[in-house]
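Exercise: predict the fold of this chain.
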Amino acid sequence: MKTISAMVVATLLCSCGPDMGEVRRYDYSVVNNSGVSVEVIPYSDGIVRIDKKVILNNAQKINKIDIDYPPYGELRMINVLHPALRVNKIDIIFNSTKKITYEDCSPTNNCSEQLRNIFNGDFQNERTEVYIITAQDLQNAIDCGGNCN
């Protein structure tokens, strides 16, 4: 009887522990609806990484589904385009003639004031998010005066 009681107690103790939380599933996408082809060129630690540029044709979508387990990491919208690189700035170049530059949030760069900045927390606060590069982004981009590359 003591053996059975000891086994029951051991089983109960082994099954006890902190609740590690739920598994989180993230479904993040970047869609180019600007009307032209775009290049997204990342910067890592201030260094431009042309070798890691991503080209999105008009109406093209890139999707990343990620599963996260406790303790939770941080999936950011920029990881859809550059999953293996710590990106702190990007250039979005429209048809090689216009561009927009976005920088990561910091004490000197308040992303909450930059509604279209891909680093803005509004684009990564839900488990399903879609960032759309729009025709208005193209319109608001800065003309390079020739080739932006």
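Check your answer against the key: Helices lie at 2-15, 78-81, 135-140.
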